[in-house]
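Exam prep: given the inputs below (a chain plus shikimate-3-phosphate), describe the expected output before reading on.
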Amino acid sequence: MTRFVCRPGGKLSGNIRVPGDKSISHRSIILSSIAEGISHISGFLQGEDSLNTIRAFEHLDVTIERDQDQVRVTGAGMHGLRKPETDLDMGNSGTAMRLLLGLLAGQVFDSRLIGDSSLSSRPMGRVIEPLQSMGAIIESEPGGRAPLQIRGTQGLKAIDYDMPVASAQVKSCLLLAGLYAQGTTVVHEPAPTRDHSERMLRGFGCDVYSDDSGISIKGNQSLMACDLEIPADISSAAFFMVAASIADNSDITLKHVGVNPTRTGVIEILELMGADIDLINPRNVSGEPVADIRVRCAGLKGIDIPLHLVPLAIDEFPVLFVAAACAQGTTRLSGAAELRVKESDRIQVMADGLVAMGIDAQAQADGIIIQGGEIAGGAVDSHGDHRIAMAFSVASLRARDDIHIDDCDNVNTSFPGFVKLAQAAGIRVSIDD
Ligand code: S3P
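Solution:
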């Protein structure tokens, strides 16, 4: 099991580019696999999660050639996927499992999705139930858990669905199933969530209509191959945004980061806390907004995190809690119960780790209250959650003593090369031999 050791202190400087966006990487493989023709993808995330998505589509008989972050996909067309001869292993990835479930629910053949122990404990009922109402036949373990057995179907029927939780995975799952349904599938979100699926579907020539009342997609459309450039992942950049904000004399520029407005909650929250962040050279790349982000150290203050920003920063809370621990005063988060069903229970695991390092952090049912203070250092457990491991590495910049972080292997799911890049930027993290 990989353990990180972080020495206290340090400051951030230079220009860095973090790896490609995970959400967009998954979607690029899914859509190019069912498109007509050859798609070229650059900037693909070479992390375990997105590599598992490539492997799954290879098992579905799609030809995918990869050279580092460049991927060439020979699309099989809407009806060209073939029955896999093995279970499709989605590893640690909720996105891959939920999106593939939507796609596979509409195929004529049977398939089975499996995952690691974390993924096998995460709720899949939120996608199974609406898919069943479209006519999909899916069997799960008790409580709607993976492994998931999907039966081949002769066709789904469209639904009009009010999502009970704000989840881009649920929305995207239903849009993919909607491609294989008779009629127009409509999905209503309780709050806006990341819209990469909608943007990319349009890029592949598909009609997807969105307005304030929902997102709709007509069944039986075909997708045309296209070339995609994937920006750096704002969720990975977020570790460096917080790191530079909390470490004295820091000044760092994060290159070519995706700044889709459905993902920039982390910037808005940090700015409300007093962070010094500039977006430089905003541009549009493959249908997604992109910018370089310059972050300089600033004194942060505690805030009440506005509810509407929660879904727009959902993956960045572990490191935002570290920002809160370094801020003057109290930070309160509520309306974020979803954090309890991520790769780990991120409310409890972060509260436990912060308390172990001397910070007053109180877990709440749907959030947390954190009192800014001095980080003592000590031993924490990431519970196999990549973002928890990286968040505690960032905390070392303001710690008094070393921080030891257990169970860090899964950093490779979203951020291969994290330790090297973090060292180059000024964080004193290393792998304990
Ligand atoms: C994702 C959606 C979010 C996010 C996850 C990636 C996606 O999950 O936490 O890391 O790519 O659609 P939910 O849909 O469960 O909020």
